[in-house]
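New to this. Please check both lines:
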Amino acid sequence: MDWKKVGIFALGTLFGYEGIKILSSKDAKKVYTNGTAAVLRAKDTVLAQVTTLQENCSDIYADAQAINEERAEKSECEECEDESGEKKSGADNKKKDSEK
């Protein structure tokens, strides 16, 4: 029999038993409770920040859609004026100025 392996097994069992006693002590439970409370506080803070970020992203998205709609309306309006001959776009006015 290899006494070295038996000794290592015995020490492992002893440390495991003592570890269980330490982990189940009142002081350890107090540490676990405080650690869990800190994690819950951090979770609440993160969730509040995520909510704020989502609201800001929604506002930015809505503003971007409004800008694109305004540009599309302006572009349609310029095309209508170009077809009617009343007003030319800026590029056409520059071309006429260079011909003079």
User: Anything to note?
Assistant: Residues 26 and 54 are 42 Å apart (CA to CA). Helices lie at 3-23, 26-84, 90-99.
